[in-house]
Task: structure prediction
Amino acid sequence: MAGFKYILKRMAWSIFVLFGLSILIFCIARVIPGDTATMALGSTASEHAKELYREQNHLNEPLPVQYFYWIGDAVRGNFGNSTQTKRPVATDIKEFLPATLELIAFAAILEIIGGIGLGVLTARKPGGLLDNSVRVTSYLGIATPSFVWGILFMLIFCHWTHLLPTIGRLSSNIVPPKNITGLYVIDGILTGNTAAAWDAFKHIIMPGTALALTGIAQSARMTRASMLDNMDKDYVSAEIAAGIPMRRVMWVYVLRPSAIPAVSMIALDIAAMLGNAFMVEQVFSYPGVSKYCLNAILNKDLNAVVGVVLVIGVSFLLVNIMVDIISAFLDPRIRLQGGTI
Amino acid sequence: MSKKNEKTANTSVASRSAVRWDNIKRNWYMFSRNKISVVGFVAVILIILVAIFQQYIAPYPEHSSAYTNFSAAKLSPNSQYWLGTDASGRDVLSRIIFSFRGALIMGVGVIMVAAPVGVIMGLLAGYYKGRIVSTIIMRVVDIFLSLPSLVLALAISAIFTPTLFHSMMAITVSWWAWYARLVYGAASSIRNEYYIQSAELIGASRKHIIFREILPNCWFTILTKMTLDMGIVILMGASLSFVGLGAQPPKPDLGTMISDGYKLLPDAWWLTIFPAAAIMLIVLSFNLLGDGIADMLNAKEV
Result:
């Protein structure tokens, strides 16, 4: 019961933050850049057309009133039209978002499994070959932007060895699977179109790994550190003395409390992926929402920028809520005491 | 700690400077126990020197601007051009050397603005914890942190013309909140210490308490974060200029060089690999130095 209350409290708080974020984004989009009508119609538009545009979009009202018109539309999923694609921004987002979600989901799964798995393995043999290579990767990883990893992978796996396809989401000779979730790999499996699923999967291996690499090394090191801390505890000696197999002790009893710091780090890292995806999607010409937003930024298409940034803000909050729930599940103390927000 | 002893003992100038020298020697001893930190320290000094004396170190200083020499375009690394030449025949090594200054300005500039703003906000919020001022500040901080910093910086740069200065501004706006949150945590716990209560009792002003009692005790935390942030900020700057939102050509910039270079892969690999290695080198050096300083400041007495 306490856990349920905690989650409710957390969600109420997130809605407040989201409200604040929308004000921040509104300010970025409306207050600073000058005349919105000129931005939307171009400097060659006639004064009459601009006045009409202002009238239609309530731009003559005071700013707070404008905000309420704007947020009312945004809540209903109406972010206005993109000046680039001449379509509603919401339609564009709906088209491009699944690609990015697929990429980030792959990277996140990779990071959770790889990070925690490597963490346990390196904790079993501190100072071993695996341990040292994880340490070096983590040092290099923090110092290297993920788009550089992307470029390196591209050089190695496409240009030199031709193992993986270079750009895009699907090879040009493959028809996209029927749209159910929008995630090509899942759709391909659901519709039995394994060729498409496999091809789509091959396309996300490199960008996904480029996004996850640094995080894998860092979360592995973090898991390792807290595993080593916890392995000195008395309960572990008791379990070993009681004859519980070492593998079970490590993967179940030591891992559970040790995973908490790694889980919150991974959450922060997934947030960072949402940012790094901008560069990585650019490198691989991956048709995701980040690449769409990047083009919008470069072309000053503010409606599109605002829409995508709001969507990213919402996903970030959802990830954070999920992490809180997972941590509460892993650590009963957070669950029972209600935690702090 | 030694500062307080110094004051109460009413020491002479000579012994005071001796104490200070002692402090430096002890800190250096603790710092240099980890050899890797010393490597980072030396590397950072070298990078700063290269950035200052770029004119004299670069083999072809004139290649740092819009120079073209198409007869020498896209040469692979050779004895004349150690790291090869780019598509318009400019020496890659010279351009990398000239880009160091921009990277350092990016890191220092962002931190020098973001840290003081964030620290003051955090101190105020920590001191007035439980009051409306604190609530407002920390709620605003939460909102700024509700987007990944890079996304916020990208969104802000959307409204400016892309220049190095504007990308610095965009990163600063998305960065100060981290300092505010960090200092708030430290300040709000220090605020309940007995010495703060005593200072209040004897009638010390709020300004005195915030800046002379609380701030010095947060100083280590802030300094550690500042050194570790250098690398992260330089990386963010490189990411922004990689997508064309940073320094504009012909100004040499590592991110821009990579984004120009990777389109020519796999042939002209030196146009991508060397600038990427340069970013890695700068950031790694600052990270090693930062780790060393963090260890030094957090070390227990030896």
